[in-house]
Specification:
Number of helices: 2
Order of helices and strands: HH
Helix content: 10-25%
Structural class: mainly alpha
Largest sheet: none
């Protein structure tokens, strides 16, 4: 049996912060184009960095 199966951070009473969904928001709500659905490409351009 897995060693940490009952001790996962998302199952505790503490805050569990994660990142997700920024690419969908940037594409469909902001109208930006993301090559390969990857937001890090935006950092290569000034307008992308400002997003």
């Amino acid at each position: 049996m897995a060693r940490y199966r009952d001790n996962l951070p998302q199952l505790s009473d503490g805050v569990f912060l994660t990142d997700g969904g920024i690419e969908t928001t940037l594409i469909f709500h902001e109208g930006l184009e993301l090559p390969d659905f990857a937001a890090f490409h935006l950092l290569k351009r000034k307008e992308g960095y400002e997003a």
